[in-house]
Amino acid sequence: MIKNRIKVLRAERNWTQVDLAEIVGISRQAVISIEKYKYTPSLELAFHIAQAFDVDINEVFQVEDNHQ
Description:
Blueprint: E1 2-4, H1 6-13, H2 17-24, H3 28-35, H4 43-53, H5 57-60, E2 61-63
Antiparallel strand pairs: 1-2
Protein name: XRE family transcriptional regulator
GO molecular function: DNA binding
Keywords: DNA-binding
């Protein structure tokens, strides 16, 4: 599973889901789905989200190893 820190990063910047959606060019519903792990973004979208936060993609998304 790919975990994300989008909600935390948004809160640090006082951004709403709508703010992020507008910056990245997706719907608010897509942001909600990504935050709730109902949708995994494409690699391209993941990079766009990281760029919006001005951080490395690894600061936004992490792979959770379920095989331990």
